[in-house]
Amino acid sequence: MPHTPARFLVPLRWSDMDAYGHVNNVEFLRLLEDARVIAFREWFGEERTMLDSGVLVARHEIEYLAPLTFRHAPIAVDMWATKIGGAGFDVSYEVRDPDDVGSALYARAETTLVAYDFASASPRRLSREERAVLVAHEGEPVPFRWRRR
Amino acid sequence: MPHTPARFLVPLRWSDMDAYGHVNNVEFLRLLEDARVIAFREWFGEERTMLDSGVLVARHEIEYLAPLTFRHAPIAVDMWATKIGGAGFDVSYEVRDPDDVGSALYARAETTLVAYDFASASPRRLSREERAVLVAHEGEPVPFRWRRR
Amino acid sequence: MPHTPARFLVPLRWSDMDAYGHVNNVEFLRLLEDARVIAFREWFGEERTMLDSGVLVARHEIEYLAPLTFRHAPIAVDMWATKIGGAGFDVSYEVRDPDDVGSALYARAETTLVAYDFASASPRRLSREERAVLVAHEGEPVPFRWRRR
Amino acid sequence: MPHTPARFLVPLRWSDMDAYGHVNNVEFLRLLEDARVIAFREWFGEERTMLDSGVLVARHEIEYLAPLTFRHAPIAVDMWATKIGGAGFDVSYEVRDPDDVGSALYARAETTLVAYDFASASPRRLSREERAVLVAHEGEPVPFRWRRR
Q1: Best of B15, B24, B26, B118 to disrupt the A interface by mutation (most A CBs within 10 Å)?
Q2: D35 is a domain residue
Q3: Which of B42, C81, C128, D128 is most buried by its number of CB atoms within 10 A?
């Protein structure tokens, strides 16, 4: 992970909880989507977000470490880029309490994104500018505990 | 995979599509949840499903292979057990067209489930009966393509 | 209501339940959307559904009569057309147990739909064929109990 | 409506959009749920929200006035109490652009809430304190245009 990964504050919804009274495991992926929307706008600029105009989700991996219940304050998602290649990259995440709440770690996750040109409906290369932005947020892949069983 | 993995037919909803007009990548995990609900009821019995009374999701991994759009007919989810241990197991999935529609493969995925006793809120061992059911549906872990980059 | 309103069977999802362990009140509207998708395909034909190509939702009204919990079998949605006008119509619904389960009534609802031409992004008139289909399914508006307080 | 109805800022999610690229009509009800969660905490206090501990949704009515697309900034929900009775009350809403964005009105809606005691699973009377809070936020019911057709 970078020395200081970017942190994004993502609001929860009461409806993220399932019948067990916890934020549902599938909704965690929704929170990560929200974090990417916020992050890519900040990283790649106001006008176009990379999510809208240039990447496809190719893969997710996620580990759940502690149950999360609804709270009024947003959750913190630390996020950084890894495996930056010519035509795509990975994003690593840690879902945590914000600093003023505590230090609990709820989930670790990784998403593989492929650069895509929606206008022509075909894969594309990352631009020099996109690579520069990603390299500025580069870190080591988040370590998974369960995969290695 | 077993010689003939169990196949479960999971209905789509029109709302599973996102603004790109495809079933959203997060909603695929919802379809897998639906498949587990159907499967565990069939495998473990009418009265209690294992989902209700005895497992926690510890991990998901999913690869997206082709875009899926809404259709009125259900999608097929092939599902089998892997890595059956004392206190948990994995489920492998392939999301496919039903036989009368085609042979497209939309996603491969894997979920790690941990046996849990909701009444006492603590981990537990798989029972002998649960193990026997799972072994009857055992196969090789689904092969992921993207993980090994 | 018509002597025999059309009945559509709509699958539930385990995730339709909220932290109270009941199908969430908002998800009922999702079930009604699913019922319209099924109904309009049956009423207006295979190729195009009216939902895809020709109506906007202008209004919903819904009353909740009994709590609904997840079940593996679909729920029954009785549905008929009312207030058929030149440029739109209403749909009335009753959400019920299927006959082999019981006779509980969970919700009454009404949706106002406006005929729309998505290609030109403008309101339109109902066609003669559309009107004929709707008239064949016409009934009295579902009676609401709470509105008249 | 009160001279100055309470305004709550509700974050959107990219996934609130459906395949038409607009915030889905059902998701508007989710935004209203989020607004109630925020409002009731502010109105009734930090420790318990009325949503968690004391009201059931008995009815919704909503009219859609303009299409809404995803934006990074929250949407404004103006909200006030109406028809305050011994055992329940209504909430009226207007979903609008925040002041710094514009003055568009996207939806008008009304929810009927019934006071409920979840501990004993039975209806209850509004307390004197609850009534006082609601009266401080009382206004005229939001005027619906479509209902009177």
Answers
A1: B26
A2: yes
A3: C81
Cβ distance of D34 and A13 shorter than 8 Å: yes
Compare all CA atoms of chain D with the CA of B27 and give the residue at the minimum distance. Answer: D15
Contact check, Cβ <8 Å, B61/A60? yes
The per-type count for chain A, helices as H runs and strands as E runs, is 3, 6
Phi/psi of residue D15, nearest 5 degrees = -75, -5
Nearest to A14 among D11, D37, D72 (CB): D37
Contacts of C134 (CB under 8 A, 6+ apart): C43, C81, C84, C89, C126
Query: Which residue type is seen at C39?
Result: A
> Per the domain annotation, does D144 fall within a domain?
no
CATH for C127: 3.10.129.10
What tens digit of pLDDT does each residue of B62-75 get? 999 999 999 999 99
What average pLDDT does the segment C45-51 reach?
67
Looking at the domain assignment, is residue B127 inside a domain?
A: yes
Q: What is the pLDDT of residues A110-148, one digit of tens each?
A: 999 999 988 888 999 999 999 999 999 999 999 998 775
**B147 vs B145: CA distance, rounded Å:** 6
pLDDT category of residue C47 using cuts at 50, 70 and 90 = low
Q: Which chains would you list as touching D if contact means 3+ CB atom pairs under 8 Å?
A: A, B, C
3-state secondary structure of C11: coil
Confidence of residue B146 (pLDDT cuts 50, 70, 90): confident
Residue A103 placed within a domain = yes
Question: What pLDDT score was predicted for residue B48?
Answer: 64
pTM as predicted: 0.95
Contact D63 C62 (CB under 8 A): no
Average pLDDT, rounded, for chain B: 92
Nearest Cα of chain C lies from the Cα of B134 at a distance, in angstroms, of 21
Q: What's the total number of domains in chain C? A: 1
> Where in the sequence is the domain holding A13, given as residue range(s)?
6-136
Residue type, B83: K
